[in-house]
Amino acid sequence: MRDSYDVVIIGGAVIGSAVAYFLTANADFDGSVLIIERDPTFAQASTSLSSSSIRNQFSNPINVQIGQFGTQFIRDFADVMEVDGEKPDLGFHEGGYLFLASGDEQAQILRENHEVQKSLGADVVLWGPDQIKAAFPHLSVDDLQLASYGQSGEGWFSNTGLMNGFRKKARAQGADYLVDEVVEIARVEDRVTGVVLASGQVISCGALVNASGPRAAKTAAMAGLNVPVEPRKRSLFVFDCAKTPEGTATVNNGHLPLMIDPSGSFCRPEGKFFLAGTVPEADPAVDWDDFEVRHEEFERLWMDLAERSEAFEAIKLVNFWAGHYAFNTLDHNVIAGPHDEVANFIFANGFSGHGLQQSPAVGRGVAEWITYGAFRSLDLTPIGYDRVVRNEPFLEKAVI
């Protein structure tokens, strides 16, 4: 293992590996890349514990475009990530997202979001209660005013498949991976100069990328920097239905979408089962190693879903787990790009539950910044670190 790299990336899950892929795939970048990962099993990585979905239905144009690029990248993933004749299959199910609105305020937000989405070419429609019922007969619509449905470009896919595809291709293109833990970051005035590892090895670098997920603030603090990211816990539940509504839709060949109820609870098909979660009533920061499932959330989730559909009255829990959001306490959106004073410390943090779906566009953007000193494909400046310094949130109304 070398003792000096042009770029060192802390965190080897989907974000770090996406940055490594786009760097090594760019003919204009001729530097060396090292990814340092503390846990090669990724057992507790946000990537591995994600609900693994992607959408274009956001309120801010940048987030819509990030989603659109991610969708196309996932569609092309097998060909782009081919290594030695092997093409990774992400099993992308374009089931769509269905946002349901029950009051005037929720309906108005959907209308405003829809204008932004349509202006960028997103395949999204607005439906009233009769249209919702016609498309998804199992749903109760008496309390609904409006729905926003993504007819294509949205769905779910293999989370570990995306991560492993990035990792394998980045390695094939020359990136090095090292299993170790960064315990110290060396800094001289306004530049990071290297890292010290738990093994005792010291590695110098030209640029450092913080891709350490919920541990982002811990990583930044080693360089004397701050980032408003903390671990928040999300519990996910897989259940079986006595009488499944999957296959009953009159759109998309009978397939159901990922449905977001006005209560905040959501569910989507997961093979022959359903995957579901809800918004915690209390949402404090948690310890790094706290992965205990909040089982009380399942009862509330069940009540929400049973009120929405009789099909969800008789269900059986078959699996559950908890993962961590890398939660941006400023505005629940990613921070991408350089620190305002330490310019070779690059953030890719605070995705707040959107990291998997946003990894292609943000990985590309961070790689462009390192290579050219600017974002080229999509201007990510509004989601840069400067807004943290100014304490000006990046507004996004479609956060779930």
TrEMBL record:
Entry GO MF terms: oxidoreductase activity
GO CC terms in record: cytoplasm
Source organism superkingdom: Bacteria
Name used for this protein in its record: FAD-binding oxidoreductase
Organism for this UniProt entry: Halocynthiibacter styelae
Transmembrane segments: 7-24
Keywords for this protein: Membrane, Oxidoreductase, Transmembrane, Transmembrane helix
Annotated signal sequence range: none
InterPro entries from the UniProt entry: FAD-dep_OxRdtase (IPR006076), FAD/NAD-bd_sf (IPR036188)
One annotated GO biological process: mitochondrial respiratory chain complex I assembly
Domain FAD dependent oxidoreductase per the UniProt entry, residue ranges: 6-369
Pfam families named among the record's database cross-references: DAO
